[in-house]
Amino acid sequence: MGRLKGTIAGFAIAVASLLAALPSPAWAQGTLNDMIAARQRAAGRDDSRLLVDAREIVYNNDRNTIAASGDVELSYQGRTLQADRVVYDRNTSRVFAEGNVRLADSSGAVTTASRFELTDDFKTGFIDSLRVVQTTVDRGETVRARFSAPRAERIEGETTTFLRGTYTACEPCRENPERPPLWQVKAARIVHNNQERTIYYENASIEFLGVPIAAVPYFWTPDPTVKRMTGFLAPHFIHSTALGFGVSTPFFWDIAPDRDLTIAPTFYSRQGVLLQAEWRQRLLTGSYNIRAAGIFQQGQSAFLPAPFGPANREGRGMIETNGRFAINPQWQFGWNIALLSDKWFLQNYKIRSETLASNYLLLESTSQVFLRGQGDRSFFDLRGFYFQGLSYADWQKQLPLVAPVLDYDKRIDGPQPLGGELRLQFNFTNLMREAAQFDPITAANRSFPFGSGLTTAAYQSCVVFQRGICLVRGLAGNFARVSGEVSWRRAFVDDVGQVWTPFTYLRADGFFNHVDTTGYQNAMVANFVNPDQEFIGRAMPAVGMEYRYPFVADTGNFGTHTLTPIAQIIARPNETHIGRLPNEDAHSLVYDDTTLFDWDKFSGYDRAEGGVRANLGLQYNWQTPAGWTANALFGQSYQLAGRNSYRIPDLVNTGSESGLQTRASDFVSRFQVNPTQNFSLIARSRFDQGDFSVKSFEAQAVANFNPWAPITGSLTYVRYKEQPALGYLHRREGLQPAAAWNITPNWSIGGSVLFDLDRYLDNRDTFFNAYAAALAQGGQALANTVVYNRGDPYTIAQAGLTLGYKDECTTFSINYAMTPRVAATGERETDRTVLVRLELRTLGQASFSQSLGSTTTDGVSSR
C-alpha cells in the first residue's frame, strides 16, 4: 500500500478521507477532525492540526480506534512522534506508540523509548525504556544532556519523572555503548521540570566510570538550557597557614534579565567568615559591576604586626567597581576603581581584582577613569590614575595621583601644494605626590629613613642626596605639563625608485611646577631642582629628511632579495632645562632596531631630543616561492652637532648607558627568519660602538609542530649588560622555555620556566652588600671586580605547569605556579600554589587551592 499524507486534528484528514466512503453511524456526528478538535476546545487546548505520515492506516469502527503503521510520523504543536506503529483510541483520547519510538519537541530534546502511552497532544503519559537527549549551545559549544530510565511518566508536557533514572552530559562509547560514561548521576527519582527548568535528584549517587564516589540524599541543578538561574553555585575550597581550612558557598540571585547579585560567604577555620558580594547590571549602552569583600578577623596573630602586616587590624575589606559604556559608535567611557583597607588584603585572602598589576616581585593596584573617542584619523583619550602599592617597600605617599591625562592625535591631508600628511598632537598631564621618592645608585648610598627590620617600614632612600649617586624617581608637590606638536611629512618617489621623505615638526611644552619642600625628605629635592621656579617653557622645532633606495633582485627559485639603505637626518636646537624638570613619563628608554629611526627616541613628553642627529641603517628582505621569508636590519645613530640629550643626565639618568650617550651610538641589529608558517626565529641586539661587545641581546624561537605532532613551543633568551648609572649594578640574564602538548584529543600538558641565569632576583641584595664593601675597601676599581659566590649557576625565578583534561562533558585541570616575591621582612621568598579545578558540564564545578610553604603572602606570620 502506498504512503498516505495529510492533516487531521486528532489523527489525520488522510484517515478521515480514506474512511469517508465507509458507512458508519459515527460519522453522523461529524468527521474525526471535528470530534478531536471539539474535544481539544472543550479542554481549553489549541485546535491546531496534526500532520501524519504513514505507510498504512487502518480504521477499526468496532473498537473506535485508528492504527497507523510503517514509518509513522506525527507532528503537532512543535512536537514530532515517530514509531513503527501508532494506535489512537478515540474512547480514551490516548495514543499508543511502540517500536523504535522517538519523540522530539520544539526545545530540541529527543526522547527514545520502546513504548509510549500518551494523550493525543503528546503531553501526558507513560514511557518504557526511554532515553532523552536534550541539545543546547553553551559558550559556542554544543552540549547534550542525556536521561535514561526503565520507566518514566510525562505530565502535561512540562514534567518528566524518571524512575531509577540516570543523568549525564557525556557521549556514550561508540565501540561499547553499554560501558558506563565518564560520570553519571543515578537516582531513585529524577524529576525534570521544564517550566522551572530545574532537575531534581532524590536518593542520588555520583559515579565515575561506574564507581560510586558520593551519595547525596537530595539536590537539584538547572537544566542545560539555563544560562542564569537563582540558586547556589558550586563550592570552592581553600587552605593556607594563615586562614586555615575554608569553604565558599556562593549564592546567585537572578534578579532580572539585565542584573544579578552574587553573595559568597567563605567560612575559614582560623579567621571566621569572609563575605563577598558582586552586583552586575547591563544597561542599554554598556554594563557595570560592583564587588565588595570584608571580614572581621578572628586570628590576627596569624599575620605580622604593623607596619609589616595586618595583625593590628580586625576589620579588613575592599570595594571595586568596573564599567564600560558606549556614548555612540565613536565615543565610550568607563572606570576601573578599587579601594583597599590595607596592602595585604587581596593577597592574604586570594581575592581577584581587575586592577592588579604584577612585575615579578612587586604588586600594585591601578584605578582609572577614562573617556575615549576614535575617528577615522583621530584619537582622543582622557584618563585619571590612582596607584596603590601592595608590596612591602611601597610608601603610599610616594605614589602619585595622576589626573587628568589628556591625549589627542589627529591626522589630515597636508595643505596644497605641499600635500603629504599633517599630524596634530596634544597632551596635558597633571600629577600630585605627597613625598619625594629617592633611589640610590650605589649600595653604599642606600638608607632606610624609617629604619629597617621588623619595627618600621623598609622602603629605600639615599644617605647622600646629590647627583650621580641618588636618583629622583618622583618629586613631591603638584606638577602639570601641557604639550602640543604639529608635524608634516610627505614621501616622493623619483624615476629610479629612490624614496625621499622630507618632514618637519614644531613642539612646545609648558611646565607648571609647585614643589613641596615640607619636611626633611622633601627638602632634599632642592639639591636637584629649583623649587622656586614654578613655570618653565620649552620649544623644539625640527626639520629632517629620510632617504630609502631599495635594490631588488629576482633569482627565480631562490626568491626575491631586497636590499634597502636607509638614511635619516634631523636638525634641531639643543634641548633646554635638562635635569631641572620633573621626568615622570620618560623614564624608560630602549634603543634598538624599533626606535632607530624615531624622530625623538624618548618614550614620553617630559624629555625632548635636541641637536642634529643622523640615523643610518641597512635593511635586507628575502622571500622565496616556497614561503621562506627573512628580514635583517643593521644600523647606528650619530650626534652630528649640538648637545647630545642622552649624554646629559636628568633626575633619573634617562639616556645614560642607553647606547645613545656617545657621539657615535652603539650598533643595533635585528634578524628574523620564517622558514614556514609553523616556525619563526627573531633576534635583536645592541653592540658597543667601540669594541663591539654585546650590550643587550634578545632572541625568541617559536615552533608549531602541527600537523606532524600536536606540540607548540617557544624559547626566549635575554641578556642585558649592567647599567650602574641606572641602579643595575650587574648584568641581567634569563632563559624561558615554554611548551604545550596535546597528548590526546582530550589530554594536554603545558608549562614554562624562567631561569634567572645570573641569580639577579635571588641575590640582588647579597651583591649590593658585597659591592658596597669592596667600594669602601678599594674604591670603584675594586667594586667593579666584585664577583659574588653564586653557588648554582642559575635559579628558577618563575615556573608554571598545567595538566588538563577536557571532553564534551568534563573539564579537569591541575595548575602549579611558582612565583617570587619579597616578604614584608624584606626577604625574598617563593610562593608555590596548587590549584585543582573540576567541572562537570551542566552539573557544576568545584575547585581547591593549596599554598605549599609556611609563608604565602606579604604580612603572613610563620606561626
UniProtKB/TrEMBL annotation:
<dbReference type="InterPro" id="IPR007543">
    <property type="entry name" value="LptD_C"/>
</dbReference>
<dbReference type="Pfam" id="PF04453">
    <property type="entry name" value="LptD"/>
</dbReference>
<dbReference type="InterPro" id="IPR050218">
    <property type="entry name" value="LptD"/>
</dbReference>
<keyword id="KW-0732">Signal</keyword>
<dbReference type="GO" id="GO:1990351">
    <property type="term" value="C:transporter complex"/>
</dbReference>
<dbReference type="GO" id="GO:0043165">
    <property type="term" value="P:Gram-negative-bacterium-type cell outer membrane assembly"/>
</dbReference>
<dbReference type="InterPro" id="IPR020889">
    <property type="entry name" value="LipoPS_assembly_LptD"/>
</dbReference>
<protein>
    <recommendedName>
        <fullName>LPS-assembly protein LptD</fullName>
    </recommendedName>
</protein>
<dbReference type="GO" id="GO:0009279">
    <property type="term" value="C:cell outer membrane"/>
</dbReference>
<keyword id="KW-0998">Cell outer membrane</keyword>
<comment type="subunit">
    <text>Component of the lipopolysaccharide transport and assembly complex.</text>
</comment>
<dbReference type="GO" id="GO:0015920">
    <property type="term" value="P:lipopolysaccharide transport"/>
</dbReference>
<feature type="domain" description="LptD C-terminal">
    <location>
        <begin position="316"/>
        <end position="747"/>
    </location>
</feature>
<feature type="signal peptide">
    <location>
        <begin position="1"/>
        <end position="28"/>
    </location>
</feature>
<keyword id="KW-0472">Membrane</keyword>
<comment type="similarity">
    <text>Belongs to the LptD family.</text>
</comment>
<comment type="function">
    <text>Involved in the assembly of lipopolysaccharide (LPS) at the surface of the outer membrane.</text>
</comment>
